[in-house]
């Protein structure tokens, strides 16, 4: 048995982890743009990365290490993705780390921002030399890694086991645009003092990503830099496999939901719940098709309960389905019922009322099996176009 308790505060409360964010001049107006995570003992580390074929230089640099490497330092910059920068992009990372005076062991770099530009190496080196590795300021770090994010994204938990022992886990993340299943466009850094074995780390990340980061969509695009990094300094000397998997799921779900809610210009976060599909794969396909559909997203923005777009998207996904078994609901308001037309004036008003909420479910019962999956998405409106039209400027 175990108890999971949310903690008010950030992951810098975990013993042995230090962090901060500063301005290195990458962004205008002295905005925070460069951050670090440091551990005073070596950490076990695991990561999952984007499925994009053009992985950015920081991801390639990470994968050059031995698979069982440990680290004590992560450097994160915003404004520049260091993607599509060739071998020079990797060499620039080595140049940065070799220029720092800290005692770094297998340092990791993570970047986010505009694709196709080389890093401003001198600015990053000069900025990183200002770091105080005794600092505990996860709030500044969360600000420094933001790009188009409207707000920072953090979460923190403590797990108490039946014998009274405990461990902590927390995360900081960024992500608002280019969010799509197959790992969302985002960076997420998870720190824990759990004494988790190396072999359990990747398993827990992969298992939980399926229903969290791989189940969200803002705009259907997947970036070159997507990273989920898990660091464990093992200082608690406490571990329970089931407890860790569950609390990691909560951490990753928290971060994923904050990203969807912050979808560039988004006002609504929506769960697309597909029930009674013929297979688990069908449930995933249908739910993700709904979360990705531009027609569905714009209907959400207009608060239009256009169930025809929902049904059409399910049919276009080519999963096993039958219009005479399909039931579509907005929360508990049924708008389509097994081939029966129930969408009268009263039902439309009730459904439209649901769509005025910030958060709600669209439930699609396919009625052809026993499998289910929930994907998460948001509306898409004018602000998204404005943000992305001006992104490089």
TrEMBL record:
InterPro entries hit by this protein: Arg_biosynth_ArgJ, ArgJ-like_dom_sf, ArgJ_beta_C
Keywords for the protein's UniProt record, in alphabetical order: Acyltransferase, Amino-acid biosynthesis, Arginine biosynthesis, Autocatalytic cleavage, Cytoplasm, Multifunctional enzyme, Transferase
Enzyme class: transferase
Keyword Transferase: yes
Pathway given in the UniProt record: Amino-acid biosynthesis; L-arginine biosynthesis; N(2)-acetyl-L-ornithine from L-glutamate: step 1/4; Amino-acid biosynthesis; L-arginine biosynthesis; L-ornithine and N-acetyl-L-glutamate from L-glutamate and N(2)-acetyl-L-ornithine (cyclic): step 1/1
Site description Involved in the stabilization of negative charge on the oxyanion by the formation of the oxyanion hole, residues in chain: 112-113
GO molecular function: L-glutamate N-acetyltransferase activity; L-glutamate N-acetyltransferase activity, acting on acetyl-L-ornithine as donor
Subcellular location: Cytoplasm
Catalysed reaction, written as an equation: N(2)-acetyl-L-ornithine + L-glutamate = N-acetyl-L-glutamate + L-ornithine; L-glutamate + acetyl-CoA = N-acetyl-L-glutamate + CoA + H(+)
Enzyme nomenclature, EC number: 2.3.1.35, 2.3.1.1
Recorded superkingdom: Bacteria
Positions bearing the site annotation: Cleavage: 184-185
A cellular-component GO term for this protein: cytoplasm
Annotated binding of substrate, by residue: 147, 174, 185, 264, 388, 393
SUPFAM superfamilies referenced in this protein's UniProt entry, alphabetically: DmpA/ArgJ-like
A single BP term in Gene Ontology: ornithine biosynthetic process
Main location: cytoplasm
Pfam families tied to this protein: ArgJ (PF01960)
Its job: Catalyzes two activities which are involved in the cyclic version of arginine biosynthesis: the synthesis of N-acetylglutamate from glutamate and acetyl-CoA as the acetyl donor, and of ornithine by transacetylation between N(2)-acetylornithine and glutamate.
Quaternary structure (record): Heterotetramer of two alpha and two beta chains.
PANTHER family: ARGININE BIOSYNTHESIS BIFUNCTIONAL PROTEIN ARGJ (PTHR23100), ARGININE BIOSYNTHESIS BIFUNCTIONAL PROTEIN ARGJ, MITOCHONDRIAL (PTHR23100:SF0)
Family: Belongs to the ArgJ family.
NCBIfam families linked to this entry: ArgJ, PRK05388.1
Name of the protein: Arginine biosynthesis bifunctional protein ArgJ
Organism whose genome encodes this protein: Malaciobacter molluscorum LMG 25693
